[in-house]
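The material for today's practical consists of a large collection of protein records. There is nothing in a record beyond a sequence line and a structure line. Backbone structure tokens are a discrete shorthand for how the chain folds in space. Nothing more is needed to start thinking about how sequence determines fold. As an example, a complete record with its sequence and its structure tokens follows.
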Amino acid sequence: MPDSSILWSPAPYHILSYGTLLGSTIYQSFINGIVSYRTLPRPQFSSLQTALTPVYFALQTALPVLLALTYPGAKGISPMGGVGEKSGLGGVLDERNRWLVLLPIAAMGVLNAANLVVLGPRTTGIMRERKHQETRDGKKSYDAGPHSKEMERLNKKFGWMHGLSALTNMISLGFTVFYGFVLAERLQ
């Protein structure tokens, strides 16, 4: 059993936050989304994703903040090149940690916030526009063509916005994995 003083250290909460961030990103991006798309009829898949993605992006936005707040400073000589690092936000903002800690954590937060506040809602809005256009056209957006000019425009706009959101998510995942190597270096 670990010493109970570890409960008051930011270190375990930092590791748990990181694991949750990485695990939920991988699960949503490569398992849940793909299996749901292949299994559910399109309308049910759209309803599921419309309900899940705001929760997912909120979690992905909050966890980098939690990572910054629980950053475990180093005692003695730090693998990052300093002696005695601060914990928490002070340690993240320390000049020695600018590239290996602040940059990836800030990038994760900003990219995920962009998905939460801008890209996700715009993608959902375009989905709603397509649904209305389907009613006007009497044809689903995913049915074989030809489509009305408006549906073609909305399909292109949706594809672009959804692709941008997915790219933003993958870039954030890249920063998350990079930060995992930074954490691993601290364990050696």
Remarks:
- The longest helix spans residues 98-137.
- The radius of gyration is 21 Å.
- The helical segments are 11-39, 42-69, 88-93, 98-137, 149-187.
- The chain has a mean pLDDT of 93.
